[in-house]
Structures are given as structure tokens and as C-alpha cells.
Amino acid sequence: MNWQHLIWFAAVAVVCWLSGAVLAFGSSKRWPATVVSLCGSGVFFAFIIGMWISLERPPMRTMGETRLWYTFFLSLAGVAVYARWRYKWILSFSTLMSIVFICINLFKPEIHNKSLMPALQSVWFVPHVIVYMFAYAMMGAVTLFALYLWLRRPSRRPSDEEMGMCDNLIRIGWAFLSLGMIMGALWAKEAWGDFWSWDPKETWAAATWLSYLLYLHLRPRLRNDHHTAFALIIFSFLLLQMCWYGINYLPSAQGASVHVY
Amino acid sequence: MRCLLLFVVGIVLQCVVGDFDNGFLCYPWGLILAVNYLYLLILLHSQRSKWRWVNSLSDHYASVSALGSMVIMTIIFGLTRQDASTEGLVGLLGFSRMTSSWPFNLLLFYFTTTVGLAVVDDLHHWRQRGLAAMMSHVAVFVVLTCGMFGSADKMRVTVNAHLERPTVEGVDATGVSHTLPFAITLKEFVMEEYPPKLYLLDTKMESSSEDFLSVDNAKAEGNIDGWHLAVERSLDMAGRMPDSEEWIEMVHTGATPAVYLKATNSATGESYSGWVSCGSHIFEPSYLRLGERYAIAMPRRDAKRYLSRVDVEQMSGERKRFDIEVNHPARIGAWRIYQVGYDTARGRWSSVSVLECVKDGWYSAIHIALWLMLSAGVVMFVTAGGRSFAKGGKSASAPKKCDSQQKKTTL
Predict the structure, then answer these.
(1) pTM of the predicted model as reported, rounded to 2 decimal places
(2) Residue A216, min C-alpha distance to chain B (Å)
(3) Residues 86-125 of B with CB under 8 A from A
(4) Is residue B108 domain-shared with residue B133, that is, in the same domain?
(5) ipTM of the complex
(6) Which of B301, B316, B344 corresponds to the end of one domain?
(7) Under 8 Å CB-to-CB from B32, ≥6 apart: which residues?
(8) Residue B267 domain flag
(9) Burial tier of B274 (Cβ tally within 10 Å: 0-12, 13-18, 19+)
(10) Among the residues of chain A, which ranges form H helices?
(11) How many Å lie between the alpha carbon of A229 and the closest alpha carbon of chain B?
(12) Do B74 and B172 reside in the same domain of the chain?
């Protein structure tokens, strides 16, 4: 298995995800869209496992590899939300986002090296990355949802149920952000002797974590002010982007981070 | 308003006093102050009905303003290069040394205090609280408190351990030498490396190909940028005589991998053969020239893992042997010994191992708090979906009572 095979696995997965998105609107039952979308995720996961075997290490080292996991978890998050709350549009959104990330990986893979440096050979490596990617996917899904609610007809206010879904997704995403951050801290202590060293990546991870936490603390007082809630969701997601890949372009972080990928 | 005031006070202190020096928190003062701080928090909580300002420290606005101020400070932190510069406005305000700056430390202390009061309140009304929120509050408070009051107790020194030479000295980041409470003797340094890789160099553009051929077997072959490379002979440990181009098998200090390969241009058919090696501290590297412009080169091999077998002798005379490698430190009381490096010029033949000794007396408390936080994350994930902040939701329907009751909806 190599990166040349991505296009074939991705094509099958995208067909499944698109079919699931269509079925979500066309079928009165929940399971057809769920099963078809899960098949797409399964096909994509098969590619990840194949890469894992051929690389002889977890495919989590490079930016392109983390995008694989993001795509996979985004599709799973979409299916989970659909299956749990039956929001038909979520599958279309998650499919669109997944396609965007697949295209980025096809046109700008950012991959290659098979080596895994000793610091990455830790029991925390796989759960840390997977949990973070799942959190990013959840936050991506809720950001899209918030944008949809915010930009649709101004006269239509978001319902309590819709806002409740934003809250729940952020609560789940924040829980996973916390898990990823704590796993990273425990790993850092074993590898470098510090739980936290204010590396640029860590600083932006803290800013992201605090910003979503601010949302969770503000929401009880923002029941009628959905504009502030949506603005904070989008602002927090921008911080997340800075944490994920933005620091690679940030002058203040150049050469200062051990999180190089 | 309170956060803004703290920020302004911090800026003034930064300009007048200079950086925040945590030296006064050295053991036992850090511990004594931490215990008093905890006592003060409990006292404040018990007296909050009498003093309005105390009550305002634990209300919803305090937690939101503290969180908001920390978001802003961490963003400034992230946008500012942490190079300890004292020049310019950023240096003057201490933002280039954020962890030592007064504004950051004052706001962090305020944030910790609001979390601490929330913890006391949670414990006081624990039956009415969400489990995940309580666990998160406790964990965050313990981590921040230990981080603040234990910051001066942490010691980190670098030790260059030479083969069979006991070392009791370590050097900290400022270059000051410290005597360790134990002696470290390097008995053996072992390194595993990834297979050698061959890259195509463009000598005109001074660039290297992104693709490479990994020589993981004796007959490896592949294509790089229009050149077909076929390895005909591969030596894991090789050397060569000073006046010879040929590499021969050699089990000797400085032995290095070498491959004999044939490179054929897929378009023109031109072909070149020769030895390629990354060389070592003893042997010069070899390149295979492909005409005027290109060459095949082998960079130094990437380390797969490296391990230092050391003897550690304590003051009591007790001697223990440890295998230290990255992610697997040795533990001696409050000290941990980490593998951080080696003599990269010698690679696998290094006779020096760079170790870092870290003393952290607050390790256990932080470790337990982090596991509590980990558990809180799991609990939060499992229980998510049951509550909503929106109107009609379970928590939204609760009547507005005191601030402490409303806080149960926050996480």
C-alpha cells in the first residue's frame, strides 16, 4: 500500500459518503444512510491500516498523515451525529469537508519519510493523535453547523434543539481536546521531563482549550444571544487551526517548536 | 474590570520591578505558601456571605472574566516569540518572557483562585454538581497550584556521561554546575538505526530529491526522478583504505554502511556505477556522480532508538543499573534521568551519552491530577448529550438561584 492507492480508496469512500448523504434526505429510515456512510468510513480506514502496515509505523507523523485521520474521524463524527440526533444535513457537511481534505492530500501530500524518531515511539503517540484528530473533527462539524445556523435566513432563529446540539458537540469535542492534551502532558513528562513547556504548539493548544471552555461557561448566560455564541465557536475554531497547522507559518513559532510535522 | 486592573498592575510591576522571580517559592516556602493559600480559599468561601467582594470572586462573571483574560494572554503568548528579549515594547512588557512576566502570572493566579473557589464550592455542594465538572475543577486547580507553588523546586541539569567515567556534576540551562546526589557511570551506549537512504542530489540547484530509495535489503531498487537505482552490493559495516575508492566489510570503530549501486537514466539510458556511503567520524563519505549535474548521496542514518546502560550510585552507597532510553527515564527518588542525546558526529560509535536529570518534588500530585482530568474527559464524553444550555433544556429550566447553583450548568 502506498499513497498512489489513496485515490482509489478515497473514490470508493466518497461515493459511499455521497450516497449516505443522499439517503439521509431520501429515506425515512435512519439505518440505510448510516450503514452506507459507515461503509465509506470503513473503506477509508482500510487505506489507513494499509499505510500503517506498509510504513511499519502509525501513519501519524506528517501533516498529510494527520489529515487522513481527520478525514476519517470527520466522516465518523458525521455518521454519529446523524445516527444520534438525525440531522440530515450533517452527512452532506461531513462529506464535503472530507472531500476537501482528501483533495488536499491528493494534491499536496506532505508525506514520505518512513522513519519514526525515538521520541515518537511512545504508547501515548497513537491515542494522543487519534483523540486530537477526533476532537478537531467534532469541532469542525460544529463550526460548520454554527455557520449554517448563522448564515441562513436572518429571520429564522436557531431552535433550542439546534443550539443544544452545538453545545453537545462542543462538550464532546472539548472532552476529547482535554484527553488529547493530558495524554500529551503525560507523554511529555516521560520523554522530556516536563508536563508542559509552553512550546508554541502547546500554547495554541491551551488557547484553543480555554476558548472552548469559555464558550461552555458563557453559554448559560447566552441563551438568547446566539450571535455571540456562534462568533465564539468560529473564533475558537480559528485558534484550533492555528494550533494544528497555523504555527508552521507563524513567525514567532519558527524553529521554536518540537512539534515538527 | 478586575482582570483589566490586574493586567495594568502587572504591567506597572513589570516596568518597575522587572521579571517575576519565583525564587522565593523554593522548598519549604512554596509548600508553606501553598497550604496557606488553600486555607485562605476555604476561609474566603466560608466568609463569602459576609463580604461581597469575596462572593464576586466565585460568581459566574469571575470565572468568565478569568477565562477570557487567560484566552487573551495565551494568544499574546502564542503570537510573541519567546526569546527572552528585553528590547522594544514587547520586551519591556515582558511578553517575550511570558512565564516570567507579571501580567501573565497575576492573571494566572487570579484564574487559579477562581477555580480554587469553584472547587471549594463544588465540594460544599457536591450533591448538586456534575461529576465531570467537579473532577475537571479539582484537576485543573491541583495542576495550576502545583505548577505555581512548585515551580521553583524543579531542577534540570544536563550530564555528559562518558564511558566508564563516573559523573556527579550536571550543568543547568544558565551554565551553572550542580552536584548531584548520585554518581552516573555510562557502561554501554547502544544505537539502532533505520536502513540507509539514497537521495538524488541536484548539484546545480543545490537541492535534494523528495523521493528516496531505502536500502532495506541487499538488492533494493527503485526510481528517483527519472533515474533507476539498483543496489548490487550492500555492506552494513564497512570501511576503506585511505587511497582506495572501494569499501570493504570491516568490524571496526567508525564502520559505516556502504552500497555499490548502478544508476540508469530511464530516458537516455546512460548508466553509472559506484560506491555510496554516508561516511563516519573516521571515513569520508562517498558519492556517485551522475554526469555534471546530479549525484547519488546517502545522508547519515536516522536513529531508530538509542539506549544508555548506566550505573547509578547513591550517597548511601546503593548501586543500581538502568537502561535509559527516550520515553523510558530512570527514576531515583524525586529525580528522573532522561536520555536526550549522544555524540552525533560519532553516531552509533558514540562514547558519550547526553542525559538530563530532572528533580520534581511535585510530580506525584500533578500526575494524579492529570489522571483525574483524563477520567473527567471520559466522564464528560459519556455523559454529554444529556443536558442543554438552551431554553427548555434540563439545566436551563432550573430556576435562577445563587451563582453557585448556576455554575453546575457550566460544564
Answers:
(1) 0.84
(2) 6
(3) 98-99
(4) yes
(5) 0.85
(6) B301
(7) none
(8) yes
(9) middle
(10) 6-26, 31-55, 63-85, 89-107, 125-151, 160-192, 200-218, 226-244
(11) 11
(12) no
Size of interface A-B (CB pairs under 8 A): 170
**Parent domain of B335:** 155-192+304-359
Residue B223 lies in a domain: yes
Distances in whole angstroms, Cα of residue B212 to Cα of each of A98, B215, B227: 30, 9, 11
Where a domain ends, among B314, B338, B359? B359
Cis-peptide into B28, omega within 30 deg? yes
Asked if B236 contacts B256 with a C-beta cutoff of 8 angstroms, the reply is no
Contacts of A121 in chain B (CB under 8 A): 305, 326-327
Residue B368 lies in a domain: no
**Total number of domains in chain B:** 3
> For each of chain B's 411 residues, which pLDDT tens digit applies?
788 999 999 999 999 998 998 888 888 899 999 999 999 999 988 888 888 888 888 888 899 999 999 999 999 999 999 988 888 888 999 999 999 999 999 999 999 999 999 999 888 887 667 888 999 999 999 999 999 999 888 899 999 999 999 999 999 988 999 999 999 999 999 999 989 999 999 988 888 888 889 898 888 888 898 999 999 999 999 999 888 889 999 888 889 999 999 999 999 999 999 999 999 989 999 999 998 899 999 999 988 899 999 999 998 889 999 999 999 999 998 899 999 999 988 888 999 999 999 998 899 999 999 999 999 988 888 777 655 555 444 433 333 333 333 333 333
Chain B, 165 to 184: residues with Cβ < 8 Å from chain A are: none
B322 with B284, same domain: the answer is no
Backbone angles phi and psi of B246, in degrees to 5: -90, 135
Interface test with B, best of A61, A130, A216 (most B CBs within 10 A): A216
- B19 with B42, same domain: the answer is yes
Work out the minimum CA distance from B329 to partner chain A, whole angstroms: 7
User: Which residue is listed with cell 559505516?
Assistant: B256
Query: Cα–Cα distance between A129 and A167 in angstroms, integer?
Result: 24
Residue A9's H or E segment, with its range, is helix A6-26
> How buried is residue A83: exposed, middle or buried, by Cβ count under 10 Å (0-12/13-18/19+)?
middle
- What distance in Å separates residue A93's CA from the closest CA in chain B? 21
Whether B14 and B125 map to the same domain: the answer is yes
In a domain, B18, yes or no: yes
Q: Do residues B152 and B24 touch, judged by C-beta distance below 8 A?
A: yes
Domain shared by B322 and B276, yes or no = no
* Separation between Cα atoms, residue B49 and residue B44, nearest integer Å: 9
Q: Which three cell numbers stand for residue A10?
A: 478515497
CB contacts, 8 Å: B74 with chain A: 203-204, 206-207, 210
- Same domain (yes/no): B343, B215: no
Residues B291, B338: one domain? no
Q: Using CA of residue B245, residue B251, residue B256, residue B258, what is the dihedral sign?
A: positive
